Amino acid sequence: MKRAKMVLAVLALAVMTVMSYSACALAAGAQGKGYVIGFTDNYNGNTLHQQQERYFQEIADQMKKDGIISEYHMVVANQDVATQVSQIQNFIMMGCDAIIIDPTSTSGLDGAIKEAYDAGVKVMIFNDGPVSSPYCYQLNVDCVANFGYLTEWCAKKLGYKGNVIVVRGIAGTGYDALSYKGITDVIAKYPDMKIVGEVYGEWTSTVAQAKISAILPSLPKVDLVCGESGDAYGAAMAFESAGLPIPLIYGGNRGEFLNWWMKENKKNGYETISGVATPWFSAAALFLTIDLLDGVKIPQYMYYPMDLITQENLSKFEGISDTEVATSVYDLQWVRNTLETQDEKANKPEMVKDK
Amino acid sequence: MLDIKSDGGNAEYLFRLNNIVKKFGHTVALDHMSLDMRAGEIIGLIGSNGAGKSTLMSVLTGVTEANEGDVELSGNLFQKERYSTAVARENGIACAYQEFSVCANLAVYENFAITVMDHRPFGKIGWRKEIAQVAKRTLDEVFPDSGINVRAKVTKLSIEQRQMVEICCAFATNGLKILILDEPTSSLTIDRITQFHAAIRRLRDTGVSVVYISHKLEEIISISTRIVVMRNGKKEREVLTDNTRIDDLVNLMGGQVSGKVAQSKESETTERIIEINNFSTRSLSNVNIHVTRGECVGISGLGGSGQRELLNEIYAAAKGKHDKNVTISGSAAFVSGDRQYEGIFKLWNIADNIIVSSLSKLSKLGVINKNASDSLAERWYDKLKFNAESKESIITNLSGGNQQKAIIGRGIAADASLIIFDDPTRGVDAGTKKEIYGILEEVCASGKSIIWYSTEDGEMLECDRVYVMKDGSVVEELVGEEISVENIVSSSFKKDAAASGGDRNKDAALGAKALNFFSNGSVMSIIVLALIWTLVSIFNKNANTRFGMTFLIGTALPLVFVAIGQMFIIGCGDINLGIGNAMGLVNVLAATVMASNLGLGLLAFAGFIAFYSAVAVLIHKRHIPSIVASLGMLSIWHGIALIGLPTPGGEAPKWLLSVFGTQTPLFPVQVYMCIIVAIISYWIAFRSKYGMILRGIGDNPLAVTKRGWSYLTAHVVTYVISSVFVICAGLAMTFVSKGADANASSTYGMMSIATILLGGCSFSGGNIEPVGVVAGALTISLISSMLTFMRISSNYRTAVIGIVLLMALICGQLLKKRGERA
Amino acid sequence: MNRTKFFLSKQSWIWPYIGSLLIYVVISFLSEGGFNLKTLFLNMTLATFAFLLGVSEMLVITSGDGAIDMSVPYTVTLCAYISAAWLREGSVLAGILLIIAICVAVGLLNGVINVYFQVPAMIGTLAVGYILYTVVLEYSSNATVQPAPALTRFARIQVGGFSMLTVICIVFAVFMYFVMYRTKFGKELHATGQGHHIAYLAGINVRAILIPVFIASSLIAGATGILLGAYMNGSFQSMGDAYQMPAIAAALVGGTLVSGGKSSVIGTFGGVVMLTLLGTLITITRLSAGWRDIIQGAVIVLILAAAADPTAKRS
User: Fold this and answer.
1) Chain A within 8 Å of B206 (Cβ-Cβ)?
2) What is the pLDDT confidence band of residue B466, given thresholds at 50, 70 and 90?
């Protein structure tokens, strides 16, 4: 009798060991779950979006090999809201477990997101949010804080006085509205700082250059250019072509701007700062989504931190290609430590509607 | 001749035009012209071109407002400001116009409806059948055995048949008291003319009076009771028809009577410029003709026997079209008698109109030699004796006869070895005609050849040889002294063995019917939709489930509505490039104002409709092309939307959510919405009375306004209808996005245009296909999903739309061409 | 007064210049930088692109039948991308030949669809444009975006105070004026615009006019793409979009009849100057984006309402 109990005990132990082992394995890497993921990108016409798609694909392909994902679909909405709505619905019809979206519109997708929610599909927004729907998870960029910070740094460097040009994005987008708020709130604090010009640069160098060039001759001396990232180099070129002294411009970590900054610094000691939420956030969104599907509790609203490049660490980026965005590449652990621990109530964007 | 003295008789006047003065710029068209008429009279109104006959009649019908003078109808005096087409119509005045005023895209009986029905927007039940009967009756009365199917579209009729329809529409006018006929027999053959005159006499017996304008003096003598001769905007003479001869009239109008008799001409060479043997096409069978150098050959016969087609084939052959049975040596020039549509370059002056065919010899290395072209223009200006200020006068200011001279000058100046004339003296006065005959004689004498089609048999006496055509083949060749009006007429009616065409037609009819069915725009569109839906279903089994359909069709609804909105606008001849942004504004209004307060929202929508329709008024009154106006409105709509909602937001009104969330049996409510839209827009366009007016205006606005309908009203109503659908589109968009975004709807502008063309509408207006448009909108919306399901990159979305569009349009064209050829 | 009205309605090219002058004056009042001619020249430089495209639209619109070339912005963008990749040391000739070949192919396609398949030009070119857009999207996801430095330098050359672009603009304008009003082709083009059938019967080979017109339009668009890419120091997907409507608007505001047969090179230039100055004025006033749009749209409509001939009958 004693011997039977011993054998049973050893057997039970063995079974438990095996089970806990596999349970750990499951918890550790969610092996063999085979999720179907859909990703719709706002557009991929500039290097930032192309880079984020590359990061996404890298991680997704690896996950496919590991069995975490069975299939993923990547589509581009080419800035057309109706198309993106349709793509979200298509993903629901194709049986996706989760949909990751770089949104084309702040509130145009609300209907589709609710439909996904009703169908039990998880939705994760990143980059061009926030969106007003309360039915999804959002990995946003804290535009107000980020651009406020950069503007504040520049204002301090100028002694809190000077003329400012504000380069905005595309009229009518949430990203633009929030960034603009961040910039103008800071400038409003200092009575000796004045906004003398405002253009819509569409976050694109070339557009910014054209628009700024058009108004330069009618402006007084400009001391500072505040942009919304992607437009800094264009602003610098506008002044260069016009033969005017180049004001203080903060950058968006684009290779072309960083290279120009390094040159200017060597030439005449030009100093500035650069910061942006980098394209790796697509990979972060994917990691977050997988954790979400696995049942991990993650905050509904998160902010992706800004990569700051200062005069001190500028030299790290020597040799960067003009078309690249200087990016810090992280990993799953970082995502869990930095993003999943954020406070969703503090991060909730104002525009999110009530359920 | 018995002159009539202006009298103080007591007989009641049906109308009196008193001292009418009308100026066009510097030109005085009517110079204190007076005309009166009593019941039971038939007035023949004649005069050389530019005498003012048509202008006088357009004053009487209210189309043109006189500068001075007034109109008196049955004793009621009207000041010129108070007189209009509506007033004229009420008093029983109707006119059959020289330039046909029928809407080609409407059925025959629908044209009657426009003429006959009252102007209330809705008709009584069964009005279509009633009018069709009236139309048939009238046609049979005036032209027995007309062979015209009143339900056929006018575009399918021959020119002769169209003129018959034009005339009968005038005959059918309610309360007809005064009938004006302006060159009514220009495309009719002798048998029809006889029937026509008989009908006029019957009409006169019922107390209706007729004004008969014509250049055909024999007809004037035959039909009228009194003849009024106009010259330079004034009444030259007035005579009773009895005892008046043609020669008297010609002299009165300032022309010399020619005593020409056909002469034999020996052909000096045997070199053949035109050699046509056994030539057959869709409208010609086994034609054999030849023309030698220096000959003047006439083509005659009953209208519609293929004469025009033959001339066009000859010209095409000269321009390089190959056919083994047709040989043309040398170059050819074409002079058309249809000045308005085939002849004059309206924006240019006389000089440019003349030299345009001679540019090769006026340029060196592609550059025009200004001196050479000036002197060429000057030479012909003098030679043709234009009645105009100078060769720099804009050609539209000239009379028909002078315009014709310019076209003739152009043809001769081109120095081609063959000149083709297509009824060049149509609507030209006697004096100018004589000048033209002289010119043609000179041309032949100089070694050029002429082939000349005329509807006036007497003109053929000018030719060396005449071919008489009937039913697409040549039935007689008259040479030299054989050429006479009697011979031409008898040949025209010759019975021959061309009856074999009958059976061929029957088989062709069946094939044509099938082709016709498929070339109907809606059918093509539905077939394409079925194809795309099949593909979608194959690649995603959820497509045919309720929730799949809700998605797929739900996101298509905005395009469905906005495309229908655009369809009505293009149907009336305009275009609205800014419709996408207008829809965006509605989206914004719905998600902001209406979401919070229904009443305020409705008010905002009413304001939207008003503003949208105001654009129609702007386009109409200021003659701005709609494409330009809509280009400007594009920005304005967008701007207003941005001001209302600078950043995307808002929410869908609760009632909207419940409407779109209605649980309907079998299919989701979205499917039923599509069906309802198609039905409603079909009803508006094709079953409602005012819809018929709108379609007519899209094809021929003048035709409709001449019958007293207001163009401005129709224009505004079209825009109001369109705006209602745009509002539906904006609401659908609000439902899809559960919010609003001022930028999201911009792409719908061009997409709606692509949609309606895919649906089978014609770009220039008049042809609308509601069912096809709905199908087209669904097709285009499905393409994006189709690509996602097929795992094809979403970048290909626009290319697929482009290719589908092109294929549908090209197929539609090819089918139409095949259908015509059958 | 009537005389003046008549004169103005006949010489409709004057209106955009009047408009430009007014806007110019307002800018000088509002600008704090003090007014200088530099504004004018700078705007002329930027207006070059709109002018080139305005002329290509003018060509197509003049050919009649309500034709408009909607594929232009996509051709511009595609050629900008291609020129960035190809017009570098070593493959300049190949790059130019490639761009010419593409433009000719696009124009030929547009022409054939319109002439042989009787598809209305606006929709035919739109469909071709849609196809081109897909090509742009596919190409641009893997393309270098910066243009060759030599090209950029070329675009920035100054000739006696005028930028190279302004010079190109003026030379092009003179050339187009000559072609449109002094050559056989130009005369026949204006004839064709007044009615394709009328022109055919007058002996003009209409196909030989229409197809070259579409090809010319695409070639001009291609050249504009190269210059635009060079000047802006890079390409982006929606590059050509911003010029679509202004190009059409400039041509129409400048006196080109939308129904065809009448054109004005000088007027198109005036239209472009006016629209560009208007853009600058609106930016300076720092009105909200919504008001900018409204003013822009209203000006277009007003100019055309003023220039329209009120006695013209609706055709």
Assistant:
1) no
2) very high
Kindly provide the ipTM of the predicted complex, given to two decimals. 0.88
- Give the position of tokens 């106009």: B230
CATH number of C12-307: 1.10.3470
Nearest-by-CA chain B residue for A41? B794
- Asked if C201 and B336 come within 8 Å (Cβ–Cβ), the reply is yes
Of residues B152 and B247, more confidently modeled: B152
CB contact under 8 A, A237 and C233: yes
Per-residue pLDDT at B493: 63
Query: At what angle are helices B711-737 and B689-699 packed, to 10 degrees?
Result: 100
Which run of H or E residues covers position B192?
A: helix B190-205
Topology classification of domain B528-821: ABC transporter involved in vitamin B12 uptake, BtuC (1.10.3470)
Sequence-ordered list of residues with C-beta below 8 angstroms from that of C104, at least 6 positions apart, any chain: C215, C218, C219
Residue B508 gets the label, from left (phi > 0), alpha (psi -120 to 50) or beta, of alpha
CATH 3.40.50.300 in chain B: give the residue spans: 2-10+41-51+92-253, 272-495
C-alpha triplet B239, B200, B119: angle, nearest 5°: 110
Question: Using the beta-carbon criterion (under 8 Å), do C184 and B631 form an inter-chain contact?
Answer: no
Q: Can you give the pLDDT at residue C315?
A: 34
pLDDT band at B47 (very low <50, low <70, confident <90, very high): confident
CA distance A251 to chain C (A): 18
**Mean pLDDT of the region A316-328:** 85
At B84, phi and psi to the nearest 5?
-150, 175
Contact C222, C79 (CB under 8 A): yes
How wide is the angle at C-alpha A33 spanned by C-alphas A31 and A38, nearest 5°?
125
Instruction: Quick: pLDDT tens for A64-83.
Output: 999 999 999 999 988 888 88
Res A166: pLDDT: 95
Domain boundaries, chain C: 12-307
Chain B neighbours (≥3 Cβ pairs under 8 A) are A, C
Mean pLDDT, to the nearest integer, of B505-514? 56
pLDDT at residue B504 tops 60 = no
Q: Which helix (H) or strand (E) holds A138?
A: strand A137-141
CB contact under 8 A, A76 and B794: yes
